[in-house]
């Protein structure tokens, strides 16, 4: 690309400057007309958040993305840079990205007055026109706006009243670009006040100087709901000046959640070929997150991030890979037993209310896993509770042969047991594989084994058979024996 290198060449090229908001608007219109999506890798917002963002950009508004953690707010803000022109000219050496056709700073004006059309021009790529600041309590007005620099004054031998001693903050240096403040409520109120003029009048004032810079910036803020923590809030006058507030949300369906998790999960080289994760386990992980978001033990104001499902999925894969490595197998299929290994990925990502804290994070995680298994089982197989009530009718209880088997025997499913031995144990249970094949004939042989194990966990969650966890294994047996065994164990510990 042959780019003009002086203002004179720039004028001859026919260049016409546009504001940042006009760039965003024009390029968004072109993208809409061509049928391109606004975001290529953000899912679930097509009918909610994306149209609201498009309207805000078309209106030239500053934007606040408001939502709980893990809702892709920062990702969307960063993706807006793709709507900027690829290159824009700036006065060479300018701290505030001066437009050659309309310079703001004293530096650029003096250079233009001295060199005229020979003033050198640099070209700024869109990637350099994005700035981001995480709001923390220690952020100062000087960080954002600027202040006098005594070192610069000494080096240039200038008086402190000379505007050339100003060290510009992040916002002036983001002129002609996009500036994002993450977690806006964490910014101290007195610092939020400093943003009033920039948002309303579009200019910046550095203290102690008779200086006004009409900056050209697209502001984007991200924030959690104000009642999320007691750390702070967006003060009302600032909220009034932010022109569009857009609410984000979690994926409304399991299918969308699976799509997001699959996209974001980091699968190490080699693991992809070594471990297969059937869709049933992925559904259970997404259902777990939904159960957590509705749980009375989890603080709903805090939210349950999509990072929970991503970490859980990665941990599940790692658990299955560890089994394959220990056994020397070339590959393996993830099991229900691997699902219980994801507890460490849950406990650090949920905020508990008082009742949940009393239970303890690990017990709450186990409860959420159980709820996910229970509810997904109820959607995929006959109602276990109703089947028990109809037990007197011949053939009415689809689980009769399985339950009867465990009234006299038990089985241990070892997490590290080989594939063939694991399958043999499940096939030894009367009616188990047959039930899966009848209800879901489309499953391949490997998935049938997984679903058979799932049936055992589902029946345990519906109190049809007993289940107890051992070291490296899960034991299924008679319900009453499991209950009494748990009581005896508790008595022995006491």
Keywords:
Helicase, Ruva Protein, domain 3, 5-stranded parallel beta sheet, 13% strand, 25 helices, 3-stranded antiparallel beta sheet, 16 strands, alpha/beta, 3 domains, 494 residues, Rossmann fold
What would your notes on this structure say?
This protein has 494 residues and is α/β, with parallel strands linked by helices. It folds into three domains: 7-144 and 172-247, P-loop containing nucleotide triphosphate hydrolases (Rossmann fold, 3-Layer(aba) Sandwich), CATH 3.40.50.300; 250-380, Helicase, Ruva Protein, domain 3 (Orthogonal Bundle); 384-494. Helices cover 47% and strands 13% of the residues. The protein is built from 25 helices and 16 strands. It has a five-stranded parallel sheet, covered by helices on one side. It has a three-stranded antiparallel sheet with strand order 14-16-15. Helix 2 (20-34) crosses helix 3. The longest helix has 22 residues, at 306-327. The radius of gyration is 31 Å and the shape is elongated. The model is unreliable at 487-494 (pLDDT under 50).
CATH architecture of the largest domain: 3-Layer(aba) Sandwich
Proportion in helices? 40-55%
CATH level 1 class label of the largest domain: Alpha Beta
Number of domains: 3
Mean pLDDT: 89
Task: Report Rg.
Answer: 31 Å
Count every helix, treating DSSP H or I runs of 4 or more residues as helices.
25
Sequence stretches where pLDDT stays below 50 over 5 or more residues: 487-494
Assign the CATH topology of the largest domain.
Rossmann fold
Please list the strands of the largest sheet in the order they lie side by side.
4-7-10-1-11
What is the CATH homology-level superfamily of the largest domain?
A: P-loop containing nucleotide triphosphate hydrolases
| DSSP, total strands | 16
Q: Tell me about the largest β-sheet.
A: 5 strands, parallel
Question: Judging from the principal axes of the Cα atoms, what is the shape?
Answer: elongated
**Class by helix and strand content?**
alpha/beta
Beta-strand residue fraction: 5-15%
